[in-house]
Amino acid sequence: MSEDLAAEAPVPAPGSPLSRAKTWLARLFSGSLLPEDQFFFFLSVVIGLFGGLSVVCFQLTISSTRLWLLGSSLRPPALQVLLAPTLAGLVVAYLVRRFFLRVRGSGVNQTKAAVYIFDGYIPFNTVIGKFLTCALAIGAGHSLGPEDPSLQIGAGIASALGRRMQLSREKLRLIAPVGAAAGLAAAFNAPISAVLFVIEEVIGSWSVGVLGSVVVSAVASVTVERWFLGDAPLFRVPVYHLRHPVELLAYVVLGIFGGYFSVFFLKLVLTLRPRLKSLPDWTQYFQPAAAGFLIGAIALRFPQVMGAGYDYMDQAMHDQFAWHLLFLLAALKLVATSLSFVSGTPGGLFAPTLFMGAMLGGAVGGLEHIVFPFLSGSVGPYALVGMGTLFAGILRAPMTSIFMVIELTGDYSVIVPVMISNAIAYLISRRHQSVPFFDELSRQDGMNLPSMEERREERPLRTEDAMRRYRAPVLSARDTVRAARERIQDTGEPYLLVRGPFGWGGLPTAALDSGGAKLDEDALIESLCTHRGLPTLHPDEGLETALRLLEDRPLLPVVRRTDHGILQGVLGLQEILQAYRRDEEAER
Amino acid sequence: MLLSLILLGALLAVTGFAARTFRRHEEDLAKEWLRRGEADLAAGHAEAALDALRTALVYSKENVGYELRLAQALVAAGRDEEARAHLRTLWETEPGSAAVNLELARLAARRGDVAEAMRYYQGSIYGVWESDGIVRHRQTRLELIHFLSAHGLKPQALSETLTFAASLPPDPALDVQAGDLFLNEGIYDRALGEYRMAFRLDPRNAPALAGAGRASFEAGNFSEAQRYLERAMRVAPLDASTTGLLDLSRSVLSLDPYVPGLSAEVRSQRALRDFELAQERLASCTPAAGNPASAGLADLARRAATLKPKAKERNLRRDMDLFESVAGLAFDVETEAEAACGAGSPEDRALALVARYRQRGAR
Fold it and tell me: A28-33: which pairs have CB atoms within 8 A and are 24 or more residues apart?
């Protein structure tokens, strides 16, 4: 009976439109219809959508957890304040130790490790673990933020999708940053900052191959996030007008304060973290709970230190705290965040960094107003600039720190103070903490990930650093052997350059030497050229390019960009090696 | 890929449902905290109200109404600077909000910053209210007029009052309000016009009748004032000051010898009565030595003593010049005495009023 039915079922004839459509769809969905580059781009949109939706769910879960554990009041009852982070710490520690070992920490390093060590592989259970443990910890009041976990969640989802689509190893390695940008963009509601951060901290270069995908995925993600959670910026910006250029000095002071505050935080975390990690294994189950209890104790009097604290940052920006309270909150948040982070509680540092920055900025601004009353009326702009300052000082992503302030607030007016203050804090932080925070964390975890800061500062060697003066005159292709021999006498140049209708050419000096054989003295040099149409180099070109062009040629001419006939020097393998050697010695 | 897209669709549906549910829950929480904030504010617990309103804002971030309520609570708690910073931020995003402008204007007024207050009051008047726009704009303009009057900015206040009156709907209460404003500004004819408009719409409108009486009185039209005030009294009992005004009007009308239509006999009797009052006033008003008025009063006393023997009803009826001299002297005495010794008895005050208006009329 069933066979009869099967026989009667309509089967599209091979070559029919229906059959062709089915085949086309099958190829489209398997990714074989498009070249991998195009499919990767298309997949970036899907990753962005997944990333955005996941982050929306993540944010909702954190908010719901907070309501469930702490209630809706900004000042929850004392018992809840003490118990919620403590018990959540216990549960989180158990989950992390038993099921999700890779979810410790913020998530930025783990994503970098996926790119540089594991070929873009992030186990999906890390995504689940990060989602659950961070939602519980942050919702219960641990002093951590949802942004860096969102970055890892996005990267994890992208990695899983990439594996499922059987992307090549090269593309799989690139897909984690694409997802990371999606996650971060949705968490911050700031696509530009997310793209910049991923480029500054995860990829480390403006690689054309991945930049488009990162941007597309961030945009798709933010679109989804705004659709569900609204498009209002995270903060309402205080009015800012620069009254007098002297006022910028106040931001210099803020930069100095922010720089040293960042250094103190970095040293504290980087000192305490390995010590707590080295304690007996069983203590790891209780460290997040202990941290939670201490945070709860602080929160009995200052509930502002719990969770991400965005609402309080907004209040700080609108003059709603006295300067000394702002300073106290910055200090207490430093303690609370250090406790949460070093105890191994999963969660991010972006939000706490911004919180500390807003409070410190407001405090410094308030204090400066007392000392110099002619400064502009509100402390709000100082809080705003303070956020970027600490972001630059702690997370060491200078470009992101500037654009983030603009994007989070939707206001451009404060750009100059932000640039001044961020630059100072960044330089102070570098001066006192040579290894960037995320790099040091990965070293503590036994991974030697490439430092993006060092990579940014690497100065590539150029042709001009290696080229030498050409000691002989340039021969003409129409010169005779006799004339050429006269011209090059005693120059000691082993290879002779020739200009002719073929452009640049060359021959070994030894070719002019008869070597016992009879050489036609009236023969043209052109007939002796061993190389014709030599590629030329320009002084600003990198040595990598030079090496590629050099191949087996002994020398290449270095010419002016404006006139290829004017020789500026020559470059050979020997010169390149010497240049690298000199550079190495100089670094030492 | 197909599976991924199906998963994406499912995730989209779940997220949509979760987001909607959570948003509804947040809206409920926001309303609940707003209610608590309002209750705390009403009970005078400003700090608790602030906490509650801030919490409401956490759950309804872009709600300008809540923001405004918080700013008002900050004002109520005496935290003007915080409120101002808060409102300035709101103003940056909602510069056309009449409510935000009004709150900023009130803060500026409290601070005594007249220019800023006027700027924000104007912003509020030409701004947008969420509901009852016309009524609220009118109330704001009224508030501005009071503010301008209180700061002695008469021309600006008058200009706003004229705009206020020009845009009124047919409403007796509003006409009375406009009449009161004109009365305050000293524009008695416009005030009378507004009051008349009011009792034309509502003939038994006591405040309008009383206002018309007051305006007529101030304009020196005492008979009309008496008429309006008596009509007002028939509609509803008058307050003490209006009753005093009615008594004064009656006194004026009974003392004024120049009221048209009086017989020569009554006119002379009144002039004599005024002369007697003036003499009593001279006797009771003795300014301190060195007071510049004392010399004038002494001169008036001498003139009175000279006139006294001739001041008889019969003489006054026959001699118009004597009548003028007697009445004129009475008026001069009351005017000088009021300046030197302040207001006297009700009759003295009435006579002083007659003197003032007759002198004004003569000019």
Answer: A28/B1, A29/B1, A29/B2, A29/B5, A30/B1, A31/A165, A31/A166, A31/A167, A31/B1
